[in-house]
Amino acid sequence: MDLSPPANMAHSPALDLNLQAELQQLRSGYETERMPSAAKRQTRLTTLENLLLENSSAIAAAISADFSHRSTHETQLLEIFPAISAIKHAKSHLRRWMKSTRSMASFWFMPARNELKPQPLGVIGIIVPWNYPLLLAVGPLVAALAAGNRAYIKMSEFTPRSGALFAKLIHAAFSDSEVRVVNGEADVAAAFSALPFDHLLFTGSTAVGKHVMRAAANNLTPVTLELGGKSPAIIGRDADIATAAAQILFGKCLNAGQTCIAPDYVLLPRGLEAGFIDAAKAVVAKQYPAFSANKDYTSIINMRHVERLTGYLDEAVKRGASVWPLADAEAGTQKMAPTIVTNAPEDTKLMQEEIFGPILPLVSFDNMSEAIAFVNKRPRPLALYYFGNDSGEREQVLNNTIAGGVSVNETIMHISQEDLPFGGVGASGMGAYHGKFGFDAFSKLKPIFHQSRFNGLFLFKPPYGKRFETLVKFLMKR
Predict the structure, then answer these.
(1) Which pLDDT score, from 0 to 100, does residue 459 have?
(2) 131 and 79 Cβ atoms separated by less than 8 Å
(3) For strand 322-325 and strand 339-342, is the pairing parallel, antiparallel, or unpaired?
């Protein structure tokens, strides 16, 4: 998701020892309470909820400062509200999630019974990206606490103000044996990912995810990787182009496109390009009037990323692409106007790398099979969007593409559904969380076989003889 430097920097022995000591404090807390009650877990979740409610203004201000400017309303909509919603959802379902599920044993072992018992894993490591520093810390933390674990969180070095504030708030609300937060540069992230967690969740870029997984492998630490990729938006022939443009631009302009599931490029029927561009201009003009001074539009995180994005555009233009700015932005600032690009060659960085900004390439197709083939010859994306009302065409797209998640006639919204898992596939990630899926990811679902006092297993014990052979023949009979 984010595009931070590879977390493979050398780190000092003193740093290692400090992180290990803090991890041990969390592990000691877990050892004193291996199976927290539902009431204790509810209390921890309520503490987290109150922390967010009481400090929402300060959190939004810190995030805005880290971005140079981030719309307070966007932070409320995209981070604080969904974080609180996740907490409420977990609290309302927690007791049911905690219950063991029982089933009868297979016919030959009756009257024995089976049980699946969820247990906390221990200490969960959480590595947070810069693009949504609150939500992508709190979302996994909710799952960890609901499952009865302790948590250790590494915040992004690109959001130092929100990272410092979150660490302060967590330290005031939780004991150091319950939840801890650490801040620091890439060397801290590298050392953190090498700790022997019971589970490690990383949200970030595919490139850095490889380093994290490699470090975790040394401890055989299970990982959940929430990565990114080039998420396509496909427009069907019967779609209303103005409506599709409005939904796509909404998803693209949120956080200035710095969202792991933002539409990365649009596949649309040949001949509809001009209509889409006109509709997109109208959307931006309506949603972000007086663009340069508009407070609802977020800045690019830093000048390094501004330069990266402008470099993508410059390369595409030199290779024959056309650029269609959808607004006028002030040069030399971190505010970058939404921009459509047409005819970008497939081997340009714009078409090869995850954009992670407000640039939207258009790719034309002649039939839906061609569009599907375009998607499938690339790494599997974290999200896919389809616009259209033809059920046959919709099923053609859904059945013949693989993505981490899908929204139909909408963008982004599937991530807000607590009853749907959120996770990637292949290069866009592995594992999933949200709601019950997060609870299960951070639990050991222990399978237990309960033998009945009276059972027939003695018939299958040595010494083997005719009776055994007769029973085996019966068991294997067709």
Answers:
(1) 76
(2) no
(3) antiparallel
Q: Indicate if 260 belongs to the active site.
A: yes
Q: Are 375 and 225 in contact (CB under 8 A)?
A: no
The domain total for the chain is: 2
Are residues 138 and 284 both part of a single domain? no
Span 90-131, pLDDT tens digits: 999 999 999 999 988 887 788 899 999 999 999 999 999 999
- How would you label 45-63 residue by residue, b for 16+ Cβ within 10 Å and e otherwise? bebbbebbeebbeebbbbb
User: In CATH, what number is assigned to the domain containing residue 178?
Assistant: 3.40.605.10
Pairing type for strands 429-430 and 223-226 reads antiparallel
Are 312 and 355 in a shared domain? yes
- Rg of the chain on CA atoms, in Å: 25
pLDDT in tens, 187-207: 999 999 999 999 999 999 999
Q: Are residues 413 and 436 in the same domain?
A: no
Spell out the residues 6+ positions from residue 286 whose beta carbon is closer than 8 angstroms to its own: none
Q: Which residues of the chain have pLDDT under 70?
A: 1-11
Q: In this structure, which amino acid lies at residue 99? A: K
Work out whether the CA dihedral 109, 111, 112, 113 comes out positive or negative: positive
Catalytic residue among 49, 178, 260, 418: 260
Question: Which of 226, 273, 354, 418 is an active site residue?
Answer: 226
Q: What is the pLDDT of residue 244?
A: 97
Residues 272 and 123 in one domain: no
Its domain, for residue 375, covers: 232-420
Asked if 283 and 389 sit in the same domain, the reply is: yes
Active site residue 253: no
Q: Residues 270, 212: one domain?
A: no
